[in-house]
Design a protein that fits this description.
The chain has 456 residues and is of the alpha+beta class. It has helices spanning 2-29, 33-55, 60-81, 106-111, 116-125, 130-137, 155-168, 185-198, 245-248, 254-279, 297-303, 345-352, 354-358, 382-392, 398-402, 411-420, 424-438; strands at 203-208, 235-242, 285-288, 307-309, 315-317, 324-331, 371-372, 375-376. It is 47% helix and 8% strand. It has two domains: 2-81; 94-438, no CATH class. The protein has a four-stranded antiparallel sheet with strand order 1-2-6-3, sandwiched between helices. A two-stranded antiparallel ribbon has the order 4-5. A two-stranded antiparallel sheet has the order 7-8. Bound molecules: iron/sulfur cluster (2 copies). One iron/sulfur cluster is lined by residues 312, 359-361, 363-364, 380, 385, 388, 396-399.
Length: 456
């Protein structure tokens, strides 16, 4: 019996060695050199121990220690598979939420600098915002040479992408075909999912529409500023496009806004096609994409079972973390809802705080969830965050880059995602290793790196 347990221990150690070998090689492919090095150190240590325990396995005390080692590993393995999380506190009641007014969004407020009449109207109601907004208005606009991360050849690329998005807004809506065709709702949802993925969506979810999913008033464009948003649609289709993690690692440089723009273009294209597809069956459908949303993406994505709200105030997708861009299609059709799942991401956010520790402006709370708009939820200090964006001339994205959930969708990271979905102890261990492998604190680059775009 003791001999069998000793052999099992040696087999386990071989497995652990293989794990560190694969981790080291895959980290090299991901250009995560620190992680590759740390995994290599673990591999060497494990191999030396393996060699020692195997060589001297005839000695009684070594054999007994191997048995003890196996028992510890076996307990560890069983505990890793158990599911236990502390009971989450008070449930978030979204139906209590005061609807968000798009005029309060920083992009809308930044646009006001071009419309003195609207500016007067806005600050008459919100005088406390005038000073901070005036400071933001006075900062150079995105694309300016004065910005920290301006790049002579790359900057006009994201500008072109956002100009293109502006021109595609009319494609987001239209009249449905005259004849309403009969559809099987299950089959139709399946077809929509396949089409969205065929056009490049990384993930997709369905949910029914509630008032709290909508802005109360429009604010992004001067011609419709202040219009009340009315909804007569029943279902939202949430389209996820995952971003290139390597681009985000260069945060907060120009690479972040390039990747962000690319994925907004992609999300707009997919949502416009899906909305047009539904209209071809004779049903109303409208795409909501960058600078053209009536809807709030995060609560929709959470309700569609795609992830949870993270400390950084964004959706943390169950597979791609917060490194995603979202577009929505709303339709009058009542389609089957995706299952809303518990991924325990919010639990992880409770103690992780990596985004908060790394935010260069202190915009992310390191304490418990604040309450605003009538309900408890993570939200950031958008004024501080946006001021910084206008200083550097790029989306910042440091919070996305450091988030332990922002990892490529590889076998190793899938394994870790499964591991942390089981229990609170696994989550604590995973965060310890995330800090060790990838570092707790990220340094900020002084300028945009010479190579912005990836090799392929
Ligand atoms: S984008 Fe940058 S400044 Fe804004 S919250 Fe994230 S880390 Fe902070
Ligand atoms: S960095 Fe940590 S605390 Fe912040 S969103 Fe990601 S998991 Fe949550």
């Amino acid at each position: 019996m003791i001999y069998i347990l000793h052999i099992l221990y040696i087999v386990c150690m071989t497995g652990i060695g293989l794990f560190f070998l694969i981790l080291s090689i895959s980290s090299l492919f991901e250009r995560e050199f620190r992680a590759a090095f740390v995994a290599l150190v673990f591999l060497i240590f494990n191999s030396l121990l393996w060699l020692f325990l195997n060589t001297y396995s005839d000695i009684e005390s070594i054999r007994s220690s191997n048995v003890g080692g196996f028992v510890v590993l076996a307990i560890f393995g069983v505990v890793s598979l158990l599911r236990f999380f502390p009971k989450s506190g008070e449930k978030r009641d979204m139906f209590q939420a005061v609807q968000y007014d798009e005029r309060d969004n920083m992009f809308s407020r930044n646009n006001l600098r071009n419309y003195p009449e609207l500016m007067k109207e806005y600050y008459k109601d919100k005088p406390d915002r005038e000073a901070i907004d005036s400071d933001i208005h006075n900062r150079p606009e995105f694309g300016s040479k004065e910005h920290t991360y301006f790049d002579y050849y790359a900057t006009p690329c994201f500008e072109a992408a956002f100009e293109y998005l502006e021109r595609t807004i009319p494609a987001s809506n239209g009249n449905p075909a005259e004849e309403k065709m009969e559809i099987d709702k299950e089959e139709f949802s399946k077809a929509i999912t396949e089409i969205a993925k065929f056009y490049g969506a990384s993930d997709i979810g369905f949910t029914s529409l509630e008032n709290y999913h909508f802005y109360s008033h429009r604010g992004r464009h001067a011609d419709r500023w202040g219009e009340e948003i009315k909804n007569d649609h029943k279902t939202a289709i949430v389209i996820v496009t995952s971003m290139n993690v390597e681009m985000f690692r260069k945060a907060p440089s120009n690479a972040v806004i390039q990747e962000s723009a690319r994925k907004y273009v992609e999300a707009a294209k997919i949502s416009n096609v899906v909305a047009g597809y539904i209209r071809n069956f004779g049903y109303q459908a409208r795409a909501h994409n960058d600078a053209n949303y009536d809807t709030l993406c995060v609560p929709l994505a959470v309700d569609a079972g795609l992830g949870e709200l993270g400390r950084l105030g964004l959706l943390v997708h169950n597979k791609y973390g917060p490194s995603v861009r979202l577009a929505i299609v709303t339709t009058e059709l009542e389609l089957p809802k995706s299952e809303k799942k518990k991924y325990h991401i919010e639990n992880f956010c409770g103690f992780c705080k990596k985004c908060s520790d790394n935010c260069p402006t202190g915009s992310i709370s390191g304490n418990s969830e604040p309450e605003s708009r009538g309900f408890r939820h993570w939200s950031i200090d958008q004024e501080k965050c946006f001021s910084f964006w206008k200083k550097i001339g790029s989306d910042c994205g440091v919070c996305l880059a450091v988030c332990p959930y922002s990892k490529p969708d590889t076998f190793m990271h899938r394994l870790v995602r499964f591991y942390i979905s089981r229990n609170i102890l696994n989550q604590r261990i995973a965060l310890f290793f995330d800090d060790l492998l990838y570092g707790r604190k990220k340094g900020l680059p002084k300028k945009t790196p010479d190579r912005i775009f990836p090799d392929k």
